[in-house]
């Protein structure tokens, strides 16, 4: 059983199929990167996965069950979600931002403190930073807080929509390594939407290239390395996009 699966899914906007009869499953404990040109439907797939959008045709299953759009709360608690720009609440400290889902789920203060300490270590966040408000943190620190919030409830699925796009390349590389460390300690099924093929090749074990709402390539990262050894990530993406 795959933790997350789309079967024959189509989504129309203004009568046009933005997602076109797409079937895709995400393997347990693996990172799958969704790449492709702007507007090809990557974010729409992610929103279909967490129920923010409903398919017009087809089924989305999480944890083996079709999404229940009348009651998404329980499913969403088992899915972490982090987006570009972090979506942190500006009037709450970093610690309170991270803890928000746990408080809503009735966790004790003690359990919250233990979990925040774990995440703080894994994401290399100094304790002092957690008492600051988002505007008092750098972009990279905010993004680490956003990832910590997404991982707070120990989700089995993590949905990441361009979470590192606004961060400078050096900080981005640091956060990539920290996320990799975190996933080694706490394996999660990850769907990563990104424009950055280098990021995709570094973080993901599976690469899905989309074009016009369809899947063009769905291949293990190792296989791609073997098929086109030595090719720079961007050149590899261009060659995959040109695949008929
Ligand atoms: N709510 C909406 N109403 C109408 N059209 C939409 C809506 N959401 C997305 N679209 C259209 O659907 C297409 C796919 O959008 P989507 O955001 O999934 O693309 P993307 O691959 O994530 O793009 P980008 O890489 O630029 O973020 C685009 O043409 C977009 O304009």
Automatic annotation (TrEMBL):
Organism: Congregibacter brevis
Keyword ATP-binding found: yes
Signal sequence segment: none
Protein's name in the database: ATP-binding cassette domain-containing protein
Domain called ABC transporter: residue spans: 4-237
Family matches, as InterPro entries: AAA+_ATPase (IPR003593), ABC_SmlMolc_Importer (IPR050093), ABC_transporter-like_ATP-bd (IPR003439), ABC_transporter-like_CS (IPR017871), P-loop_NTPase (IPR027417)
Alphabetized PANTHER family for the sequence: SPERMIDINE/PUTRESCINE IMPORT ATP-BINDING PROTEIN POTA (PTHR42781), SPERMIDINE_PUTRESCINE IMPORT ATP-BINDING PROTEIN POTA (PTHR42781:SF4)
MF term (GO), any: ATP binding
Gene3D superfamilies documented for this protein: P-loop containing nucleotide triphosphate hydrolases
Keyword list, A-Z: ATP-binding, Nucleotide-binding, Transport
Pfam families: ABC_tran
């Amino acid at each position: 059983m795959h933790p997350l699966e789309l079967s024959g899914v189509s989504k129309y906007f203004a009568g046009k199929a933005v997602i076109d009869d797409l079937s895709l499953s995400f393997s347990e404990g693996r990172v799958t990167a969704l790449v492709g040109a702007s507007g090809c439907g990557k974010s729409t797939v992610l929103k279909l996965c967490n129920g923010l959008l409903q398919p017009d045709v087809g089924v989305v299953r999480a944890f083996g069950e079709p999404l229940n759009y009348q009651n998404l709360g329980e499913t969403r608690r088992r899915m972490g979600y982090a987006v570009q720009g972090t979506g942190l609440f500006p009037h709450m400290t970093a610690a309170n931002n991270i803890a928000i889902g746990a408080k809503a789920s009735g966790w004790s203060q003690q359990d919250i403190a233990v979990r925040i300490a774990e995440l703080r270590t894994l994401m290399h966040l100094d304790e002092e930073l957690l008492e600051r408000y988002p505007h008092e943190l750098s972009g990279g620190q905010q993004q680490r807080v956003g990832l910590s919030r997404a991982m707070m409830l120990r989700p089995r699925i993590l949905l990441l929509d361009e979470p590192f796009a606004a961060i400078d390349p050096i900080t981005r590389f640091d956060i990539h390594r920290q996320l990799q460390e975190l996933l080694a300690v706490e394996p999660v099924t990850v769907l990563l939407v990104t424009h950055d093929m280098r990021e995709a090749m570094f973080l993901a074990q599976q690469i899905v290239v989309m074009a016009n709402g369809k899947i063009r390539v769905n291949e293990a990262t190792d296989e791609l390395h073997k098929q086109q050894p030595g090719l720079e990530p961007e050149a590899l993406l261009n060659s995959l996009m040109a695949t008929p």
